[in-house]
Design a protein that fits this description.
Helix content: 40-55%
Radius of gyration: 28 Å
Largest sheet: 6 strands, mixed
Number of helices: 7
Strand content: 15-25%
Order of helices and strands: HHEEHEHHEHHEE
Shape: globular
Strand order of the largest sheet: 2-1-4-6-5-3
Distance between the termini: 88 Å
């Protein structure tokens, strides 16, 4: 239909009908604008995130660690029983986060009749070093980007004289108590819980690092002398 014929038709329509049509078109446009605004708001809202990976017992002669990947949908609900006040997730408080996660894990072992793990300063350096590498180089794996495995990392840092080695890693972001959250989520994951409660482990440590974007990386290393 040409512009002339459309104008002719419009001129024959009653004025009340024309007003109704214009009002309906305006409501439709406003409705589309509001919907688009909600979609943008949903995309830009901050939501907590978390990931975990566990590595089981690796003998010294193993060429590379056997990895089991666990990716979970995380909830904000905290069920871990705190044993100390929660330190803030900042670079100045990584030691407090490390000790808090370690104590919560030992509390879970004690509650199930297992001997508590003994904190090992050598393993603490190994664990923190790996968390720092993940936070600074933006990767998440037991192996470093150059291919260095968990076993090779331990040897490079002078950790020797062990029969088996295990490791849990995780990161989370946006949680008020990241140490309690990671301890809780490790306990509800089969592979991580297997490491946490394994009676073969006697010594352990947790290492924490915080990435520039606020993600809190955790590494726990377990050892059987």
């Amino acid at each position: 239909m040409s512009l002339v014929s459309r104008a002719a038709v419009a001129s024959r329509l009653p004025r009340p009908l024309i007003k109704i049509c214009l009002r309906s078109a305006l409501i439709l446009v406003l409705g589309l604008f509001v919907t688009a605004g909600v979609a943008v708001a949903q995309r830009t809202s901050a939501r907590p995130v978390a990931r975990m990976i566990a590595s089981g017992a690796i003998p010294p002669a193993a060429p590379s660690p056997v990895r089991a990947r666990v990716v979970s949908n995380m909830s904000r609900e905290m069920v871990a029983t705190p044993v100390a006040s929660a330190p803030a997730a900042s670079a100045r408080n990584v030691g407090g986060l490390e000790r808090r996660a370690f104590e919560l894990i030992n509390a879970q072992r004690s509650a199930r009749g297992q001997q508590p793990l003994v904190w090992d300063p050598e393993l603490a350096r190994l664990a923190r070093s790996h968390s720092e590498n993940m936070a600074q180089s933006d990767f998440f794996n037991h192996n470093q980007p150059g291919g260095m495995t968990m076993v090779e990392r331990a040897r490079a840092q002078g950790v020797r004289g062990w029969k088996a080695l295990g490791e849990n890693i995780a990161y989370n972001q946006g949680y008020d108590d990241p140490a309690a959250f990671v301890a809780e989520r490790w306990m509800v994951s089969y592979k991580h819980r297997e490491n946490l409660l394994n009676s073969r482990w006697t010594r352990s440590a947790v290492g924490v690092a915080i990435a520039p974007d606020g993600r809190v990386f955790f590494t726990q290393v377990f050892i059987q002398p």
